[in-house]
Amino acid sequence: MAMNTAESLVTQIQGLSGSASDISALHDCLKQAEDSLRNDALRLVPLLNHLDPALHSLGYLYFLDACTSGAVPEDLVEELVLITARFITSCAAEQICLAPTKFIVVCKKFKEQAVLRAPIRGVAPLLAAVRKLQSSPEHLTTLHPDFLQLCLLAKCYKVGLTILKDDIFEVDQPRDLFLYCYYGGMICIGQKHFQKALELLHNVHHLFSHQYPQLWQ
Known about the structure:
- It comes from Rhizophora mucronata (Asiatic mangrove).
- Keywords: Cytoplasm, Proteasome.
- It is a single chain.
- This protein has eleven helices and two strands.
- It has 217 residues and is mainly α.
């Protein structure tokens, strides 16, 4: 993608991020430009400065996904980690939910960097991501285990408990439930909530042994 084309897309994002109909039209433009964005990924990073992650969330997400789609030079990693953390915290849920798979991919890449660098830096953004991705408090997203893993690594057990108090009735993937119960059980042990830990770890055993034995095959 030529830079002037990327810049024109920035202008479209700025002008089409207001009403639902505008955002729908913008989404069509972004999907058509996706391959071109990925081909010129690292040149897009400076253009993020012209977008507001709260107002232009959908366009920002497409740019950020493209920026992190391939190998990122070491001198850009820290900058992209900070940019991604700010985006996850600030973005509008109603916009990013139009492209949930992209949002999940961006969040998981952010989580990988947080694990490598400083897990505690990923805790607040991942909690925000979970809440924005949930269709309801009863919905277990694929980001729940990532959030709990960061809480465990950072020893932020009390923060982890905030989502373990939710009653879960909707699960996207059995593997997510398995990891949610496993990491959640460890967090409850860390907080000496042994009864809750026992319940969660019993679920781990049941899922592994009886309901979904193929999870790790």
